[in-house]
Amino acid sequence: MAYQNSPTIVSETPGTKHYCTCGESANKPYCDGSHSRLNTGKSPKMYEVTDSRRVAICDCGHTGKSPFCDGTHSTL
Fold first, then answer.
1. Where do the domains of the chain lie?
2. In this predicted model, what pLDDT tens digit does every residue of 36-68 receive, in sequence order?
3. pTM value?
């Protein structure tokens, strides 16, 4: 899997987002359907953003607060 050892920081606007959890998206942190094409066994994490804000999206695949980074990557 193409996971990284750091989060992806994005400035989000309100709306429904689908975040990549398989690590293979070419459009990280958003899902591009790679999980289906590559049969990763993972599904994107849907999240409703209600307010504009900066967020840290997990890109190590080990967070306990998906889709958000909880710092787990720093202990791997």
1. 8-64
2. 999 999 999 999 999 999 999 999 999 999 999
3. 0.89
User: CA-to-CA distance for 54 and 39, rounded, in angstroms?
Assistant: 31
Alpha helices in 1-76 (DSSP H): 34-37
Q: Give, rounded to a whole angstrom, the gap between the first and last alpha carbons of the chain.
A: 15
Q: How many residues are given for the chain?
A: 76
In the chain, % of residues over pLDDT 70: 99
66: left (phi over 0), alpha (psi -120 to 50) or beta: beta
The CATH code for residues 8-64 is: 3.40.5
**Whose CA is closest to 58, among 42, 75, 39, 71?**
71
